[in-house]
C-alpha cells in the first residue's frame, strides 16, 4: 500500500513485505526518538484461598442473618465490615465462617484471603508477621521482597489493599493484636474472624461480635441425618435426639459420631447410643463441650485398627500445623499406605486441607496426643518425632543439593533412611518446596532443640540456607541462625559453630546490625583458626570484609579481599576465589583503581568458567562488576554494552537484584552522555526493582534521580 498523499513518483513507498508478527514502524523521516515498550508482566492471580464450603453445613440462620446485616450496614455507611465469630472450641465457627464467605464471595471481586492463625492449636500461634508475609505473597509480592519489619509489612499491605474489594477470613485467632495488622485498608473489604476468645478489644474498635453456641437439638439431628441418611434417623428419632444430646450439640462431635454410623450401615442408632451410655464415668461430664468431644473422639478412636490408631496418635506429635501424605506414612516403623491416612480423614479425625495436605482439628490433636502419652512409651514417641523430623531434613537436603550444589556440608546419620522423600528436577521446584515447608522445617528445629538433639538441630538450621539465600526471610533467618549457633556449641562441633557464626554475622550485616555482625564474624574466624580450618576462616573473613564495605571501610576491605584471594588460590577453592575476586573488583572500582579491578574480574571470569556444575548467576555478576569498572573509567560505550549484556543474562535468570544493578549502571551512563530521557527510564526501572525486593538501595536511587553520587555500591556475596 502507499502512503496517503504520496505515490511511487515521490520516491517514497510504504510497502510491507514478508510475514510480520507484532508491531511494525514504517516511516521516511522521524523527528525525535522511537521508544519500544515491553508488554506489562502478567498480573498475579486473584487470590481464592478459602477452604472448601462445608458439605454438611446445617442451619445457623440467626448467625448468617447477623453477618448479612453487618455487611449491608457497613456498605451503606461506607465502612469496612469487621465481624468476630466467638464461641467454644468445636462449636462450628469455621464452618459458619466458610459457609457465609462462599455465599458472599462474589461481592468481593478482588478475591479472598484465608489464614489459620492457630490460636488454640496446642502449638505456637501464627505471628502477625508470618500471616502478613503469606498475604503479601498471595497479593503478588515475591518472597524475597517481603519486608522484614512488621511495620513495613503492614504498611505495604495497607497500600496494596487500599482500593480492593477483599474478603479476609482470619481463622482461630488468639488475640486482637494478632488480628489488627491483617485487616485490609479498604471500605469495600470485609474481615471475618473466628476465635474462642471474644476479642473485646476489636469489638471496642467497631467489630461486630457474633456469638456462636452449640446447635439446637433439631439442627443437630438434621446434621446427623445429612451424614447418616434420613431413613435411619426417622427409624429411631428419640435415640437420634439422645445421641446429639450426648454430643453436647457440638457439630464436630456430631459429625464424628455420624461418620461412625455411616461407615457401618448395619448398625442402628440404638447401637451407638448404647455404646455411649456405657461411658458412665464420663456421662456427667458431657455438659462441658470439651469433654463431650473427648467422649466422642474416644469412641471413634476405638473403632480404628491398631495401625491406623498408632498413626493417629503419632501424627499428633507432628511439629507443624499441616503435613503431607509422605510425612504421615513415614511416622510408623513399618510400611503403611495412604489408605490409612484416608481412613483417619473418613472418620473426621484428620481433615484434608488441599491436595495431599492434611491437618488435625485442634481438639482432635489434643485428644490424639493424650492417647500417645497414655499408650506409647517415651521411646516410641521419640522415635515417631525423629522419623518425621528426619523426613523433613532429608527433603530439605535434596533441595539444598539442587539449589546450592557447591557449598560445604556436614554428614548426618539418619535413624532410618526416610522413604518418599521428594525429588527435584530444577532449582525452581526445590525452592518452591522449601518455601511450602518453611514453617514445618522451622517448627522441627524448635522441637528437636527442646529434646536436646543438638546435631539434628544444627542440621535443620544449616539446610535452610538456600531458602534464606534466595527468598530472604530475614526475621526467620536470624532466629534459625541463632539456634544453629547454640546447637553447634551444645553439640560440641567447632566446625559447625564457626560456620553458623559466619551465617549469623552475614544476616546481621544485611539487616544493619553491624556491631553485632562484627562480633559474630570475628568469633567465627577465631573458632575456625583454633581448629585449623583454613577454608572456614577464609569464608568468615570474606564476610568480615563485606562488613567493612557496608561500614564504608573500603581500603580495609580491599586489603582483606586481596589476602583472601591468595588463600583461596592456595586452597584450590575456585568458586570461593571467584566470589572473592568479584568483591575485590567492585571494592577496587569504588576506590578508583579501575585497571586493578578489571584484572581481578577477568580472573573471576576464568574461575567461574571452569566450574562443574556451572554457576551462571555469579558469571553474570562478574559482568555487572565489569560494567561498573568501565563506567568509573568513563568508557561509556563499553560500559553500556557490558551492562546490557549483564541485564540480558540476569533477566533470563530472574535476578531482580542483578537487573536493578544493571539498570542503575545504564542510567548513570546515559546521564553522562546527556541523554536525560534514557537515564530517567533506567532509573525508574532500577527503583522499581529495588523496591520490589525490599532493598535499602531504593531510597538511595530515589535520591539519586538527577543527582550524581560517587559513593561506591557495597559489593554483595551470594553463597
TrEMBL record:
Residues 700-719 are annotated as: Disordered. InterPro entries: P-loop_NTPase, TPR-like_helical_dom_sf, TPR_rpt. GO terms for molecular function: ADP binding. It comes from the Bacteria. This is ATP/maltotriose-dependent transcriptional regulator MalT.
